[in-house]
Specification:
Layout: H1 5-13, H2 20-37, H3 41-46, E1 52-55, H4 62-73, E2 77-81, H5 97-117, H6 119-134, H7 144-163, E3 170-176, H8 189-205, E4 209-215, H9 216-231, H10 234-248, E5 250-254, H11 272-285, E6 288-291, E7 294-297, E8 302-307, H12 319-323, E9 327-330, H13 336-345
Helix pairs in contact: 1-2, 2-4, 5-10, 6-7, 6-9
């Protein structure tokens, strides 16, 4: 979306009160990404995003600013809490799960767009299938007059189906007995391949179709899903989703202050915190991550980190990680006046 930073800030003003510096910083970062995409491929590779560190108390609008921008720009966006990677059971490469989640978010966006583009084809597919069940086909040997009558009857039936008049009628559809789909994005690629193998085994077991009586209303939903799988090219969707996640994806790293190690409380800190910072570093710096949909490079993903930093300060993060968040914004605390404006002036 070709919006100037001023227009982006004006959009955010409808939803988030105050925090002008934060809005301006993120608006400039997004505008820079748009301008990068207008350059030649050679120059694009040399321009990396300037990641942002947002400092402010809980509830001042850190997440809301990022989420609203992602929604406006229609770019893949996910929010993760950095502190979750310090929990028991998380190890090194699990940090990569955030990239896999971003790819899934990107696929959802692209798939929705393709469904909208092919809405007419999908609805025609659904309509034709339902009318076929409600109105048996005319024999080829029928006379011309009967064919004309049949066409009029067919048109009337289509109108009744579209209007919802036939929603309570029962028709018979062929529905697969078993539908098994594994979609755990937090698993590494090796385990994802094992799941794919299981999925293929189950799909072979469920090749027989099961005839089931359903209402026309339910049939519309079932047939839309069937139409999506037949009319949409999943390979192209996945390729486009990977490209968008690479070049336009935004990852919001919340509670990054929870993995900082304060010098004042050195003895009470979990040593895994520094380990998580070390694991995050290559992702933020730029690396290749394998997903079940293909390999994605993180060089041009925009990372927005946020934290309250009550018990520590940004300098308590390891120096290498600090250097990867060159833009820092301090958000203002909420006042009574600001809270009143939030309740009375925002769009929603």
């Amino acid at each position: 979306m070709n919006l100037t930073p001023k227009e982006i800030v004006e959009y955010l003003d409808k939803y988030v009160i105050s925090q002008h510096n934060a809005k301006k910083t993120i608006a400039l970062a997004l505008r820079t990404r748009y301008r990068r995409m207008q350059l030649s491929q050679e120059l694009q590779n040399d321009i990396t995003p300037k990641n942002i560190l947002m400092i402010g108390s809980t509830g001042v609008g850190k997440t809301e600013i990022s989420r609203r921008l992602a929604k406006m720009m229609k770019v893949p966006f996910i929010k993760v809490e950095a502190s979750k990677y310090t929990e028991v059971g998380f190890v090194g490469r699990d940090v990569e799960s955030m990239i896999r989640d971003l790819v899934v978010a990107s696929i959802t966006i692209v798939k929705a767009e393709k469904e909208e583009e092919n809405r007419e084809k999908i609805e025609n597919y659904v309509l034709n299938k339902i009318v076929e069940k409600l109105l048996p086909p005319l024999p080829e040997s029928a006379s011309e007059s009967k064919k004309d009558d049949y066409q009029r009857l067919l048109k009337a039936m289509e109108d009744r189906v579209l209007s919802g008049e036939m929603d309570d009628k029962i028709i018979q559809l062929e529905v697969q007995k078993i539908h098994v789909e594994f979609n755990d994005t937090n698993l590494p690629p090796e385990m994802a391949k094992v799941q794919e193998s299981f999925s293929k085994v189950f799909s072979q077991m469920s090749k027989e179709d099961n005839k089931k009586d359903v209402t026309v209303k339910d049939a519309k939903s079932i047939l839309r899903t069937e139409a999506n799988s037949k009319l949409l090219d999943s390979t192209n969707i996945h390729a486009e989703a990977l490209r968008r996640a690479e070049n336009g994806g935004i990852i919001f790293l919340d509670e990054i202050d929870k993995i900082a190690i304060s010098e004042k409380s050195q003895g009470r800190n979990d040593p895994s915190k520094e380990g998580v910072q070390r694991d995050l570093l290559p992702i933020v710096e730029g690396s290749s991550v394998s997903t079940k949909y293909g390999v994605i490079n993180t060089d041009h993903i925009l990372f927005i980190a946020a934290g309250a930093f009550h018990l520590c300060k940004p300098s308590d993060l390891i120096p290498e990680l600090q250097g990867r968040f060159p833009l820092r914004v301090e958000l203002e605390s909420l006042t009574e006046e600001t809270l009143y404006k939030i309740l009375t002036q925002t769009k929603n």
